[in-house]
## 1
Amino acid sequence: MLAPASEAEMAEAVAAATGPLRVTGGGTRGLGAGGAAAVSTGGLRGVELYEPGALTIVVRAGTPVAEVEEALAAEGQRLPFEPMDHRALTGAEGVPTIGGVVAANASGPRRVQAGACRDSLIGVRFVDGTGTVVKNGGRVMKNVTGFDLVKLMAGSWGTLGVLTEVAFKVLPAPAASATLEIGGLEPGRAVVALSAALGSPYEVSAAAHLTEAGRTLVRIEGFEEQVAYRAERLADLLGRFGAVSVDREGVAATWADVRDAAPLAGRPGDVWRVSVRPTDGPRAWAALGEPPAVIDWGGGLIWALLPEGTDARAALAGLPGHATLVRASAAVRARLGTFHPEAPTLARLAAELRAKFDPRGILNPGLMER
């Protein structure tokens, strides 16, 4: 494995490559071009700049997410988008890196309030497929000049360039939080309840349903008195759906389980990530055969555990959205691929972008096309 220790070394490694490269961070997602030489960002580690007063942090791409979160927590701040840790779900080893989070646009339950990873990303540096270092965005939130490669790199899975540095806007961590729970709802009724909570004025920061446990969950965060007031009002609002309990102690653990789809970890079968309109969430779950699932984002995101070899995309035909195969055997992945097939126009644009940034086609070749 190639493990450059600096951006300059990464540029040299990519420029000198004579064949395909499998770009990897902490190796927690297990994707990449089979048979390709691995190039790791793990040597690009450390916080470059952190200005708590300006709510910005600049970090080398190979820095473990835990280190970034620790630095922010010391100043009472956090990453707004609550990045997922895939290890329990995929069974992968390694350490999640901040560059991998950006490459996957990994975004957790707080997306319903704070947006996705790309919405907090304000700057990137990366090495393109020719070995050229490219910079876009900046280290402050008001940098908006030029073509927005920042958003383009989020979710590109290393197919446009090898990330070397990322910059984020961050937010203060809340002083208090609470989880409101209703038990016994089926997914259709649960999504109605979650929609009511999200549509209320009480600033819900997460809304999810665990199908097997029958738990419908809503989170609120803020100052102590605000959380107490909003919890009381939300409990009144949601009372028509069933008895509402309020938890102030186990909030972090509850939402870490939702974030990481923990109820599906370590169980036989394939795991699919399905993104649909929130109101279509119950229909999508039913079309998949009512599997064990974590339904997040008020119904818009479904982590589903399906029998091995099941093609979720075929089951969801006719429903707008997309499905990604997150965990499966090599044989199943070879047959079904990983990502949802793109519409012809979008596929053409994506191919043109890859040809522009990686004219030799060496960076994770074919990964997003299958």
## 2
Amino acid sequence: MNFTILSSVVTVISLIVFLGIIYWAFSAKNKDRFEELARLPIDNENGK
């Protein structure tokens, strides 16, 4: 196995992992959790 094939395999694996992270981040089932986490700094300033 030469460097070109290994480099191509790593690139494809990296792309698949990246697309998986994008899918997870924009998944509808995570929306409520992410919105709650986004409000934490604001709620903390108000003393809640």
## 3
Amino acid sequence: MAESIVINEINIRSADRSNKDIATWRGALRAAESTANPSRTHLYDLYDEVLLDGHLTGVIAKKINAVLNKELYFEKNGERIAAMDDLIHSQPFRTVVQTIVETLLWGVSAIEFVPGPQLAVHTLPRKHIRPEKGLITWEQGGNDGIAYKDRNNIWVLGTENDLGLLLKCAPYVLYKRGCLADWAQFIEVFGQPVRIIRYDSYDDQTRAELNRILNESGSSLSLMLPRQADFEVLDGKQTNSDGGLQLSFIKALNEEISVTVLGNTETTNSSHSAGYAQSKIHQEQQNEISKADIAWTTALLNSAQFMTILNSYGYAVTGGRFAFRKDMDVAYLQQRIAIDRELATHIGIPDSYWQYTYGIPTGGR
């Protein structure tokens, strides 16, 4: 791994923080899916913007932490290799694991491994990754750069056509922003008393004096109307007097975000109708998503490319594999063991089955 440091050669630009709306999302999606010259630049700028949403941040953290907080170890021939624990617990290795999970959100990621005696990494800006061309470009969205398939120290994750889960979450966040702005305006207009003053239309001196009084007596909404004028506000307050319409819409959008990222709602938001059985079902659904994330992470950690990279740092990984500790669902196993005991009276069940199913260390039963 004698190549130069790519992160120092590319021109990194700030994220575009201009106002975003559904039309922006549509245009960015069309640019990313273009068959002639696909570019993810505008789409990933949009992703950076929607990630400022608090609810989306929370569910993403839950998805990532479900993998990061799970015990990971390295084994050979079924035996745990304790010498690899320091590597697994190091910050660079955790960055690798987190980037692997984040790839599910973004669609593509790239990690540069810095030559040296110990594992060191840089995550490359996703706007510079052109998977359809196999390039890390000098400029975001450019067509010239470094062919990463020729570089042993650059690991690109994801597939060419995958735009990630954030593609589906972005519209919900954009709609929620608009709804929050409308709700804030609703509160500003109808959340405090309205002052109405009527004056004779021909009395300009009185009008000027009343205007001065209103300006000096606070900032709440005020109206000055000629006595001869009729005035009526059709505001919908009778059907939305407390802003419940906006609140229900925001809750619906948050639920869509939770389902998109976690596969459920009840592990993040609790509803009034939620009971133990419903919450248990939702937790099981999230567990299935987490199992899939763990399987995805395990497959990439054990890929030939990552093993070659670790070998280049001097780690003895040949013939071994990374594995996550298997969690035991006690309630499930209590039901399972009754069936297994009955089967054992009719057919022979190998020791390996008991060890794997019930988490028994090798050599015990």
## 4
Amino acid sequence: MNSTFHTVARVHDPRPRSATPSSIGLLGIAVGLLTLWLLRDSSSLDGATRSTVACLAIIATIAAYELFVARVYLRPSAGLASGALRPLSIVRVELRLAALASVYAGIGSLYWLLPEYHGAFYNPFWSLLGTLAPYVLIAAPFYFAWMDRHQRETDDAYLLWARFLFRGEHPANWRPVREMLAGWMVKAFFLPLMIVYLSTNADHLNASLTAALNAPFSLATFRFMYDLSFAMDLMFGTVGYLCTLRILDSHVRSAEPTTLGWLVALICYQPFWSLISNQYIRYEGSVFWDNWLISMPLVRVVWGTVIVALLLCYALATISFGLRFSNLTNRGIITSGPYRFTKHPAYIAKNMSYWMVTVPFIEPLGWRAAVTHCAALLAVNTLYFLRAKTEEKHLMNDPEYREYAEWIARNGVFARLSRVFD
């Protein structure tokens, strides 16, 4: 009787719909990795170019599904109509283009003013920017023209911003403008980092794959899986920041509203992370897991396998977003993939892997050094805990997230474990 009750309960408690199914993300990453594989021997292409082509292949694959199968532009959240709602207004299109140009000019000025962006580190980003800029210039007028006729909301954030800048008209509601500008600031900060990391990772992935093929079932295999996990994560991170388009229903619905939320997110990335970690929260010791377990080969294999599983979970969490991955913004609620088990699979897997990779509790220099490294890693864990909590508070403004959070409270992995031990 009790078993029947639980079966009925599960049937009547379906998981809320995901903004995109994880299976489409898996198809996208398969296409992206295949593209990288096919381009691996192209001596004329550097890592930045190969990874860019792979990302474009992912975008093409997932966008085709979103547009022609799921038809996401017809969802209420997209705010678009299948047919034209009004005649085309060249004036409105021009104003939106001027608003977009002002955003690009503002971001370009920040890049020019901040010394961080002057070094060779960001060369892959500048290269990609130079490649894509002509296409954006050509496509933007056509995109805004289509949007002008099909968007349900006539006075969108771009139009409000342009009227304020060029006509001095103050919007009755500043929120759409703030959300639009915050979304662009998120993209301006994270997109260069994703592209730089991905271009570097593409070269590492080639080298680690060669090493793994030459020495199967060795530490080289772990290194390849490690690089592969981060390559998948970075590809979908890059794709997410490139594809903030309403026609794909992947636009920014809202941005993180609190200073704390921005602070704990940005501190985990360069240039802030190297400044903080080197001085205050350096948790890596003189021993890592592979050296620690060198005399116990069986335990070493099991330990490394668990690390790879955690990293793959971390990557799969990002892949589940499809075209919608982004820090500090809500671009649609994901309930598929690892998110069917917990609200923060990426953070949980990532933080567990930190402990298993760096083993801060093992330190030849003595227990004091071990305690210091453990305390530093606990500080890192606290940063991610605060990120999770600020993100939850932000997303709870979305009724779809509230529904998902309630479902996880009933059906998530921790809820099921608590019922087992009750």
